[in-house]
TrEMBL record:
It catalyses: a beta-lactam + H2O = a substituted beta-amino acid. InterPro entries: Beta-lactam/transpept-like, Beta-lactam_cat, Beta-lactam_class-A. The keyword Phosphoprotein does not apply. This is beta-lactamase. GO terms for biological process: beta-lactam antibiotic catabolic process; response to antibiotic. Keywords: Hydrolase. It comes from Sphingomonas ginsenosidivorax. It is an enzyme of class 3 (hydrolase). Belongs to the class-A beta-lactamase family.
Length: 357
């Protein structure tokens, strides 16, 4: 389909709406470009995993002090490299991807439109990173479904995501999509408010959403209560997922197997506009590479962190694509070392691709 043809298709489907911008709104809308080729599904020849890359990934995994998992799937060649890739690790905001796919799947069924108006009310506010909260005043903030999708994926806005979650039918609808599309070992939690409150050892209250209410309440808990809650979360994360399942899902998305061609382009373009994780996967990519990704970051308890992730699709200058999931589930290592692990995986993939040229 030509660029002009796709633009007409987007307009006809009502998905190229461009909501009014504000000082806090992302600059990129969900349907913005056709720069990422999305070929139709085709038979693939699975090749053996490259031994040197596998050895490098294994060494990186063994050298990291913490519970972590790495998975790489060559989208077009079919091979897989993994280390700890079957562990169920906290996704945190990586799980916003499954809300987005649920929404776009509804769009493909004719049950949702990205230009559909939607109201974000004060009672919809969540916690932590929620830039949209500055716009939610009085009776609420009127916007569109597409704007919330952009905010959720590019800025990891928790309120935008939870409002979309309500729109698509709640956690049950997302879980049903994951099962129906056979995405594998991927769990979906109860939404940001309940998940984060439980992880901290709290029971959610609406007052936590404003004036740093959550942080204040959390600070009043004893270290023992917080440690017990974090232990329980890490042992059985309600948003846990295996890195290999995420990498496989991203590869299937890239091949156009999960959504329509237009919805696939919308999702990948929006992921490509993400402003989060500048010191993670993207930091190690050589010139000419592109990335569409989603980060996730969990709560800290002293030096301990549960959930430090980056997952995405890396595309080499020659068009070869690699779906990657790097997830740190529990560690005492400082943020710089977590970033370096993620960067090292991206650098290893880029090095492998360069050797093939």
């Amino acid at each position: 389909m030509t660029t002009a043809g796709l633009a007409l298709a987007l307009n006809g489907c009502g998905t190229s709406s461009r909501p009014a911008q504000s000082a806090h709104a992302p600059a990129v809308e969900p349907a913005v470009s056709v720069s990422i080729p999305v070929p139709p599904p085709a038979p693939r020849v699975s090749r053996a995993a490259p031994a040197q890359l596998a050895a490098t990934i294994d060494a990186l995994h063994r050298g990291f002090a913490g519970k972590a998992g790495i998975a790489i799937r060559a989208v077009d060649e079919g091979w897989t490299v993994e280390a700890g890739g079957r562990l169920s690790l906290p996704q945190q905001s990586v799980s916003k991807l499954w809300v987005a796919i649920t929404l776009l799947d509804l769009r493909d069924q004719g049950k949702a439109r990205l230009d559909e108006p939607i109201l974000v009310r004060p009672e919809d506010l969540t916690l932590f990173h929620q830039p949209i909260a500055m716009l939610v005043k009085g009776a609420g903030y009127q916007t569109t479904v597409g704007d919330l999708l952009t905010r959720a994926l590019t800025h990891s806005d928790n309120t935008a995501n939870d409002r979309l979650l309500t729109f698509v039918g709640g956690p049950g609808a997302v879980r049903a999509m994951i099962e129906r599309k056979r995405l594998g070992d991927i769990r979906f939690g109860p939404g940001e408010r309940l998940l984060q409150a439980r992880t901290a050892g709290l029971t959610w209250q609406p007052s936590y959403a404003v004036n740093n209410g959550f942080l204040t309440a959390r600070s009043r808990l004893s270290p023992a209560v917080r440690a017990a809650a974090l232990d329980a979360y890490v042992a059985n994360p309600p948003d846990g997922a295996a890195p290999i399942a995420i990498a496989d899902s991203l590869a299937r998305l890239a091949r156009g197997e999960l959504l329509s061609e237009t919805s696939t382009r919308i999702l990948l373009d929006t992921m490509g506009a993400s402003v989060t994780g500048r010191a993670r996967l993207r930091a190690a990519l050589p010139p000419g590479w592109t990335i569409q990704h989603k980060t996730g970051t969990g709560q800290d308890l002293g030096a301990r962190n549960a959930g430090f992730n980056d997952v995405g699709l890396l595309t080499a200058p020659d068009g070869r694509r690699y779906a990657i999931a790097v997830m740190v589930g529990d560690t005492l290592r400082p943020i710089r070392e977590r970033q370096q692990l993620i960067q090292s995986v991206a650098a290893a993939v880029a090095s492998h691709a360069a050797m093939r040229n």
